[in-house]
Every structure is written in C-alpha cells, then in structure tokens.
Amino acid sequence: MEGQKTMTDRYINIFTDFGFKKIFGEEVNKDLLIDFLNELLKGEQSIKDLTYKKTEHLGSGDADRKAIFDLYCENEQGEKFIVELQKSKQNFFKDRSVYYSTFPIAEQGKRGIWNFELKAVYTIAILDFRFDDQDKDRTVVSNVQLMDTQKMKVFYDKLTFVYLQMPNFTKTEDELETKFDCWLYVLRNLHKLHDRPKRIRDRIFEKFFETAEISHFNPEEREEYEESLKYYRDLQNTLDTARDEGKIEKGFEVALNLIAMDFGDEQIGQATGLSINEVVKLRRKSNKQ
User: Fold this and answer.
1) Structurally, how many domains does the chain consist of?
2) Range of the domain at 153
3) In terms of pTM, does the model score above 0.90?
4) How far apart, in Å, do the first and last CA atoms of the chain sit?
5) φ, ψ for residue 132 (rounded to 5)?
6) pLDDT block averages, 10 residues each, the chain of length 289
7) CB 103 within 8 A of CB 67
8) 39, 60, 134, 288: which is deepest, by most CB within 10 A?
9) DSSP state string for 39-88
C-alpha cells in the first residue's frame, strides 16, 4: 500500500510539491533556502535575507496567461529569485522559464519618469530529468545569461537562468568535496537515506534533516505529504510506462491516462508537452466517451 510504504521512509521526497515547499518555502526554514542559493550562486551573491512574495502573477490583460512559480523571493537589495522544481520533461520548458522571468522584470516598471534601471532576476530550476543535448550525461549546473556571440562575453548580467540537472549528479558521500556538493547530494538522495550522512554535519544540514524527517510531521502534514507523494509516483509510473511502450513522443496516450487519474490541465501539459488547448480537447473527447 502507498501509505504503508511511506511509513518506512525516514525522510521526505523533496521532488514532491509538499517536500520542496516544506524545505524551502516556509518562513521558519528561510535560512535553508538562503544557504542553498548562496552556495549555488557563490561569487555572485551573498544573500542576507529573503522575502517570500506571492507566487501567482497576472498579466496586464484578461487574456494574458497566469504564471505560477513554486517559490518567488526578493533579497534585501530588491533582486528577484524564482526557484522552481520540475518533475517531468516538457517540450518547451526553456521557453517557459524565459516567459516566467518576464514577470519579475515587468513588475519593476514605474509610472512617470523612470530611467529603466532594473534589479537582477534569477530563475533557478531544479530538474528531475536531463536535457536532450550533447552533454546530458555530464553537466549538473548550467548557468545561462545573455551573451555577445562575437566577443564571447556576457552582454547583460542582470538576467540569469540556472538549471540543475539532478540525474547527472552521481557523486557518492565519499566523493563530496564542497558544501555545494553536499547540497546536491542531499537533494538527490534524501528520500533514499535512512541515516544522516556522517560527512555532512554542518549546522544548516542538521536543521535540514530535522525538517525533512517524516516522524516530526503532525497528522495534517503527513496526510498532505502522502497525497503529494502519491501524485509524484503516479506521474512517474505513467511516464515510465509510456517510455517503455514507445509512446512518449506523441504524448496523447499519456495525457489520456493522466486525465483518467484526475490530473489538472496544466499538470498534464507539463508532463506531456501538449498545449493546454490540446489537453482540453482530449478531456472533452474523453468525457464524451
């Protein structure tokens, strides 16, 4: 049974919505997010404090699409940070992350006289999959900025995209060299661990493991986590089955399975690469049948 299996796990799966927001999205655990970002952006950032902002942004008109971020934060200097977790491959994921970055940029516009100076925007995506490119088996962290392609220099350093391809991180505990290595290790392996790694004894990680321990949850938190974990496993099982049957490229069979399991249109679109309109049409067709 799903619940019985979870009871044997000591720590949460951070790739669930509940797990990700429990670790990084609660005010009481803000220091965990700050430490992670400082290690990820070492040399660029030294964040002292973060303010959580509303994660739903609306466009300027009724016809504009909504953008919903997993986490949206601002540091003490007014710089913006989108931090999201992506569980499954999406055909236009890079387009999506660029689109999302436009909201923190646009909200900085000021009425009246304004010199167009902007605060930096960082989009950080923790991916539970690999990009389909030539270095998919090697690259863990990809830092992307606007570049002058002739001079091979950064043209604009206030817009940064950081992609973490977590399946590419394969270091064992004995191979960890830096604090950032430790962060990647615990994010990648947390749900598999039964004991705290002996080599990871930093104060911030003591709090990390305390926060992630399922036995510390109240009944409501445990129930919410169980539901989030069930969604994660159902999605993974459906995608794995589709790959095995050679159907993943089409996406429609996967979408129909997810519709039958009552997943939302946006979730199905993210999982299959189909547009929302395509998903809606499939849902209507499925309901008629």
Assistant:
1) 1
2) 10-216
3) no
4) 31
5) -90, 75
6) 58 94 96 97 90 78 63 95 87 87 93 92 93 73 95 96 94 96 96 92 95 96 94 78 58 79 79 77 74
7) yes
8) 39
9) HHTTTT-----EEE--SEE--SSTTSPPEE-SEEEEETTS-EEEEEEE-S
